Amino acid sequence: MMKKTLISTAILALATLVSVPAAQAKEWKTVTIGLEGAYEPWNLTKPDGTMDGFEVDLAKDLCGRIKVECKFIAQDWDGMIPSLNAGKFDVIMDGMSITEERKKQIDFSRPYAGERAGFATLKSNDLAKLAGTGTVVTLSGDPAKDKATLDTLREALKGKSVGVQVATNYAEWLAKNFKDTITVTEYKTVGEADLDLAAGRVDATVGDVTFYYSVLSRPDHSEMTLAGPEITGPVWSEGIGPAFRKSDPELRDMFDKAIGEALADGTIKKLSMKWFKTDMSPQTKS
């Protein structure tokens, strides 16, 4: 009797489970994208208040491919990840490097751009003659393997002050490799760092070279120049790509597929040449 009761109970439980409808994936009709609107040429805010830039153009293309309406919202860099996870927007597209540390909090699709960094200084500063200017070096992220390049940079930067945007790979890299050599000042935005550079309050800034390519071409930045080698490679990240809440894997997969298509048909290269004047397509499997 007990055995029959147990069997009946099991059948009833199974029937209950079967009758419960499976959780359905969210149907995306509108996707809100968070960006600074102040990281030219990746993204910027025009005088009329609308957004423009490489990532804005790319986002519009990707949203067209996945057939959703695309909206943009400005967000300060240091609140980007918390705001995503709080539901303020659905995707981050703001020159964000794909790192293992960030993967603990958020998800990424495949990258849509590679990453290359460098130092900017005033033409009147002795750092303007920094060795390696005009060259590109690849760093692995392993201090032992990168020792020769790091030693050269440490010697050249000894006693200098360097500005960098807070909570970036570049800030982490300076802290890890130069903390006993230079004075590091962190800023909320890259623009604030460049203002202090122009005023002579720091000797140099470090950041993405595509940003420097854009701002150094303007008359109000004519006294600044890139100095030393441009640095690329695994030292920075797996590339730059969109970020998603871990609870939205279907949205991540939609963007992943669309980015793959945009890489394959040359759209990303075309937009890269438009905004960066160089191909920043990721050197990874597409």
Automatic annotation (TrEMBL):
Residues 1-25 form the signal peptide. InterPro entries: Solute-binding_3/MltF_N. Residues 30-279 form the Solute-binding protein family 3/N-terminal domain. The keyword Signal applies. SMART domains: PBPb. Keywords: Signal. This is ABC transporter substrate-binding protein.
